[in-house]
Amino acid sequence: MAVIYQRVALIGLGLIAGSMSLAMRRAGLAGEITGYARSAETRAIATETGLVDRVCESAAAAVEGADLVVLCVPVGVMGAVAAEIAPALKAGATVSDVGSVKRAVIEAVAPHLPDTVDFIPAHPLAGTEHSGPRSGFAELFDNRWCILISDGVRNRPAVDRLRALWEGMGAHVDEMDADHHDLVLAVTSHTPHLIAYTMVGVADDLRRVTDSEVIKYSAAGFRDFTRIAASDPTMWRDVFLNNKDATLEILGRFTEELFALQRAIRLGDGDHLHDYFTRTRAIRRGIIDAGQDTAAPNFGRGSKG
Amino acid sequence: MAVIYQRVALIGLGLIAGSMSLAMRRAGLAGEITGYARSAETRAIATETGLVDRVCESAAAAVEGADLVVLCVPVGVMGAVAAEIAPALKAGATVSDVGSVKRAVIEAVAPHLPDTVDFIPAHPLAGTEHSGPRSGFAELFDNRWCILISDGVRNRPAVDRLRALWEGMGAHVDEMDADHHDLVLAVTSHTPHLIAYTMVGVADDLRRVTDSEVIKYSAAGFRDFTRIAASDPTMWRDVFLNNKDATLEILGRFTEELFALQRAIRLGDGDHLHDYFTRTRAIRRGIIDAGQDTAAPNFGRGSKG
Question: What is the mean pLDDT of residues B221-247?
Answer without folding.
Answer: 85
